[in-house]
Amino acid sequence: MAKSTTTFVCQACGATTSKWSGRCDSCGEWNSIVEEKPLSAGPASKSLGAARGRTAPLTDLSTEETPPPRTLSGLDEFDRVLGGGLVPASAVLVGGDPGIGKSTLLLQAAAQFARSGLKTLYVSGEEASAQVRMRAQRLGLSDAPVKLAAETNLRDILTTLEEERPGLAIIDSIQTMWADNVDSAPGSVSQVRAAAHELVTFAKRRGMAVILVGHVTKEGQIAGPRVVEHMVDTVLYFEGERGHQFRILRAVKNRFGPADEIGVFEMTGGGLSQVANPSALFLSDREEPAPGAAVFAGIEGTRPVLVEFQCLVAPSSLSQPRRSVLGWDGGRLAMILAVLEARCGIPFAGLDVYLNVAGGLRVSEPAADLAVATALLSAREDVAIARDMVVFGEISLSGALRPVGQTENRLKEAQKLGFTTAIAPARSKAGDKPGLALKSYPDLAGYVGDMFGA
Ligand code: TYD
Ligand code: MG
């Protein structure tokens, strides 16, 4: 009897099984398993491939040969997140929620790349060419020498790419692409995987850079398989809060540059405009000093960014008080609350805690610990802290304050924005900054006693 050729694929994580079940064993997602035909329908050939001479000794790849230069789009925020421009023959994935502005960003980037001399092809699977053209007109980009194609069939796209030989192809979006040799619906894991694989391999072979756009599911993953993330060199996420005009382009993986780099944009009527000084933007709508607010001198990627932590502490009517966090790690908050209780004798039992990073930024640095503790105490004690003070430092479980990296850059940014006091862990190395006083503390208890008299 011929072997069954169908497999069951989890649409959330891409795991395959031989039988259907209600819950994926790999990722635990419910109702995500769908029957799909396997990628290679035919039997695997037993004979060896014809490839020959495709290897070369490492030492042969001559060291004098300089790597091909990166192309700068001139859209500085975008270039920086890429690690200093677009690397030739690289594959980039730009993920984000529907409607966040991916198409807008990439159309603007395409226009800039085309203007700086890189032959650029924008393939839209979601909009007709006329619609893309209309959008370009509205963005004031209609004179940019970008080639457009409205196409979803992968075979046709590859033919077009073969003929056009662009230096950069933008595929918007990978979920609309469809390979006719794969027997499942567009947007399914098999299709997304096959299309991404074909496009990336093609791009590498032809020395063409490719940017894939991917929609993100509610859970925050690129819809379909994580495997697309492994296939590309660089993964960027375009994120932002609904209702906020700020958009943040974040590198989460980059073979050619630092991960965690961010680019900040503002969505306006005329498209995305770059925000060269994010600190000023994130702090711009600060009101009078209020209890619960503390400014953190952070580093995002290679750039210092000052952001405000806002905290509210209120008596709880729940047996298990609420801990609500936006823009910061919930586990980390629990840890800081525990350290405050155990090392400084300040309990938060019976109190609801709400913590928020102003402006919709997401902070992941442990260096923000001390700023979070400051916001928590300021809210709990109902005392506003000085408006011109920045805070940074990592808190260890023992209650000691640990110095963090890039102290100098953090202080410079604070000084530039007119702050006059900086709180940092002891042993932080920094030169003198006129107008900015550096106060350092070896442990949390000492700081809390000094600051809040607790
Ligand atoms: P879009 O780039 O289509 O999002 P995506 O490709 O990620 O789905 O952006 C759509 C949103 O951006 C839409 O809500 C309108 C807004 N927008 C502006 O505010 N100004 C503009 O100039 C453009 C082109 C879009
Ligand atoms: Mg779009």
TrEMBL record:
GO terms for molecular function: ATP binding; ATP-dependent DNA damage sensor activity; damaged DNA binding; hydrolase activity; zinc ion binding. One of its GO terms (biological process) is recombinational repair. Residues 67-216 form the RecA family profile domain. InterPro entries: AAA+_ATPase, DNA_repair_RadA, P-loop_NTPase, RecA_ATP-bd, Ribosomal_Su5_D2-typ_SF, Ribsml_uS5_D2-typ_fold_subgr, Rubredoxin_2. Keywords: ATP-binding, DNA damage, DNA repair, DNA-binding, Hydrolase, Metal-binding, Nucleotide-binding, Stress response, Zinc, Zinc-finger. It comes from the Bacteria. Residues 40-72 are annotated as: Disordered. GO terms for cellular component: cytosol. A motif (RadA KNRFG motif) lies at residues 253-257. Pfam families: AAA_25, ChlI, Zn_ribbon_LapB. SUPFAM superfamilies: P-loop containing nucleoside triphosphate hydrolases, Ribosomal protein S5 domain 2-like. ATP binds at G96, D97, P98, G99, I100, G101, K102, S103. Residues 352-454 are annotated as: Lon-protease-like. HAMAP family: RadA_bact. Belongs to the RecA family. RadA subfamily. NCBIfam families: sms (TIGR00416). DNA-dependent ATPase involved in processing of recombination intermediates, plays a role in repairing DNA breaks. Stimulates the branch migration of RecA-mediated strand transfer reactions, allowing the 3' invading strand to extend heteroduplex DNA faster. Binds ssDNA in the presence of ADP but not other nucleotides, has ATPase activity that is stimulated by ssDNA and various branched DNA structures, but inhibited by SSB. Does not have RecA's homology-searching function. Plays a role in repairing double-strand DNA breaks, probably involving stabilizing or processing branched DNA or blocked replication forks. The middle region has homology to RecA with ATPase motifs including the RadA KNRFG motif, while the C-terminus is homologous to Lon protease. This is DNA repair protein RadA. It comes from Maritimibacter harenae.
